[in-house]
Amino acid sequence: MNRESAEKIIGSALAGGRKVLSEYESKRVLKAYDIPVTREVLVHEESEVAPVTADIGYPLVMKVCSAAIAHKTEKGLIRVDIRTDTEALQAFHEIKRGLEDQEGGVLIQEMIKGRRELVMGLTRDDQFGPCVMFGLGGIFTEILRDIVFRRAPLTREDALAMMREIRASGILDAVRGMEAADRERLADMLIGIGQIGIDLGRVREIDLNPVILSGKDPVVVDALIVLS
Amino acid sequence: MQRDKSDPLSVVTRAPDTDYERIFHPKRVAIAGVSPGGGSGFGTLSLLSLQAMGFEGEIFPVNPKGGEITGLKIYRRVEDIPGKLDLVVVVVAAEESAAVLEAGRRKGAAGGIIITSGFSETATPEGVAREEEIRQIAAKGIRVIGPNCFGIYCPRSGLTFIPNPDLSRESGPVAFLSQSGGMASDYTSMGMWMGLRFSKVVSFGNGADLRESELLWYLGDDTETGVISMYVEGIRDGDEFLKALKSAARKKAVVILKGGLSTAGSRAVVSHTASLGGSRVIWESLLRQAGAVQVRDIQEMAQTCLAFAMLPGRVYRGLSVAGGGGALGIVACDTAEVYGLEVPLLQGSVRDQVASYLPKSGASAVNPIDVANPYTPPEILEKIFRVAAQDNRIDLQVLMLLPHHYKTFAGTRRGWRTFPHEELADRLKSVIRETRKPVVLVMTNTKRGLPDLDVVEVHAKARQTFLAKGIPVFDEIGDALRAIANVNRYYGKGETA
Questions:
Q1: CA dist., res. B401 & res. B375, Å (int)
Q2: Is the Cβ pair B242, A128 closer than 8 Å?
């Protein structure tokens, strides 16, 4: 865990007058707390694209990364399943154009394959302070609202209880040929999110959606951190 | 909002030196604000309620005009009362309350109950200032309940709420905390006929001094209290509340009715997590995290406390369900499944024995047990229950009684004039004692209109008889099974249903 590096990222955003961290920044904060995120590199120039794609390897996802643009999908600034250098360059230019004059770059990240999407997050309740969320992710988060909260800091038992409490808890079991999720790793992540809430008072909200189960391993695929 | 450590309101002292004994069981009580001419003010009503309850301690009515009331001398000032006080009940005007409280403190009172309203609940600067004044006096050593409250009901001492001079003097294991006086009054009144008996009930109104967290710490350690129920709207300090709740819930069941869940937070929200984390889902999750049992309404709270108070503390998974009617049993099984309870088929030999007590046709011994007859004699029910308990998958037995049918059949069988509840209660009690498996009664009265007040009366009498023998009674099968499921939620922590 590296609290200082997380504080630095938040400090520089605040210094720049920003209340929202970009996806890239958000994930660096998560990484500082040992929360597994997608392998990814932020690029700004065309020349950077080829070495990065070679390093991460296809298939890839490329998306706009700008604190000013929170809803990438709605803006159409996300390309998935990129499999060739040509596709990668084309995606780079399209996303760059979509950025217009706003600050930001293009995030090149590994494409996580998995059919099970979870959500994790943090909110600050007026009465109870930082509370960690866990539930069913992706488009189901808002439709089914199958979520539970625990007040930070979380014990391991709290984290494991959250996984049992959602109605769809069976999704974490070995089901339809998919491996059982690594519940201990999920618990580490939830405890880590709670710790961010305790350590970093300026973090107002965290939204990790989706967290995809790649086999048994959870990986944060998209992340948003809101500051106060 | 971060908790400000320098804010005195956010620091809740546990005050181990608070003399709760003298607050709940006072020997010398002043009531400031009685009306010399009698009248029906709250001060006079406080006095009359206390006298109607048979409060054994000394009562000192106070009014500047002096005089006499119900045979007691009225003192002009609290200061004039001879000797020490244990408790001062403040029913004077809001602007005079602080002075009376202070006088009580100087008289050595351990506690003050301020019934009067006109404090922070008015949201006026004067009201807020008055409450702050109360808090400052409290900080000097007198613990305050209120203002704007109904006070304390404590059967052992005879303290009661103003509108409840008719509550029982019989103590029991159930405690109740509530900001709302109306809720405290309704809940205890309801508890009387349902079979709840109370240790301590506190309506603390604005909660200027003593309130939810500190009282939870106290009740958690109170040997008179076996189960704590609470009605909660706002809390002063989330951190302290959860600590107190967690600690209390480790020692005894805490049943919480949380009001005000539907008011959505009004602050601006950016992320999905924050918008999903409205007050309802956060409260539900955190109450579970603290080990409390959350209920949806006052009825469920009372029924759940009845189950906690009357059933030995453990998980009840397998049930036998018996009643006179097939559909009754089927619906009971469906409801059981909803609450994570099982109604297992009875084993061969047990089933055969149960069947041997049943009519040859129209009955069923598989569980649910259909006795095929709403007026099955108590001795037959006793035999059936004794045998069914031998099945080791049965943890608890439910009997669905239909006493309203006895009206129709009164006189047709061996001279019964009414439903033989006393005989049945005795027989079931002996079954419970021998089998060590509780029996829960469900008595649904389908006849509650004016022409059937005699049936209503039979029900009330039967309920009283069963409760007196230690057998819990519920109106509906759903109420009973939900209450049992709540008991399981508490004792089966960490288990999945």
A1: 9
A2: yes
Q: Give the DSSP H/E element, type plus range, for residue A125.
A: strand A116-125
Per-residue pLDDT for B497 more than 60? no
Residue B168 confidence (pLDDT) above 80 = yes
Q: With a cut of 60, say whether residue B5 has pLDDT above it.
A: no
Cα–Cα dist B81/A40, whole Å: 80
Buried b (16+ CB within 10 A) or exposed e, B31-63: bbbbbeeeeeebbbbbbbbbeebebebbbbbbb
Contact A205 B238 (CB under 8 A): no
Does B139 touch chain A if contact means CB atoms closer than 8 Å? no
> Alpha helices, DSSP H only, in chain A?
3-15, 23-32, 46-56, 72-75, 85-99, 140-144, 156-165, 183-199
For B311-357, the pLDDT digits (tens) are 999 999 999 999 988 888 999 999 999 999 999 999 889 999 999 99
Is the ipTM beyond the 0.85 threshold?
A: no
Query: Which of the pair, B236 or B462, is modelled with greater confidence?
Result: B462
CB contacts of A22 in chain B (<8 Å) are none
User: Do the Cβ atoms of A207 and B238 come within 8 Å?
Assistant: no
Band of pLDDT at residue B2, cut at 50, 70 and 90: very low
CATH architecture of B313-491: 3-Layer(aba) Sandwich (3.40)
Domains and CATH numbers, chain A: 11-17+114-227 (3.30.470.20), 39-110 (3.30.1490.20)
Write the residue in A133, A141, A165 that is nearest to B277 by C-beta.
Answer: A133
